[in-house]
């Protein structure tokens, strides 16, 4: 009985040590892809984040607000199609900063990001205001957009 237990333990030890030795190979570096995405040596690049906050406008007319939000969503789609927005979305709960949503723009220029955010009808109408921050993230971030279209049945 003891010999069976020792045999089992030695097999388990061998299996565990073999599993630990097996390493997942790092994907081969792709210089062409890195260059096309503007990646630095770490695979990163600068972006600009725009945090949308509640604006000063108080719009009670539901039809007008619906039209502004439709324009807001259409503008996001337009900017995404132009490669300017790489991430956009609302926050799911209230927060002390009163942030409503965010954009990650594919630019390191705060001035350029501000020009782009000002094309939003809801920003123009004062439904949203914004704060702008420089950010450093993966240069591969824009690549997720092509997969998003494959997994979404409806657009808001």
From TrEMBL:
Coiled coil: none annotated. InterPro entries: Dimeric_a/b-barrel (IPR011008), YCII (IPR005545). Residues 63-135 form the YCII-related domain. Residues 1-19 form the signal peptide. It holds the Pfam family YCII. Keywords: Signal. Belongs to the YciI family. This is Uncharacterized conserved protein YciI, contains a putative active-site phosphohistidine. It comes from Chryseobacterium jejuense.
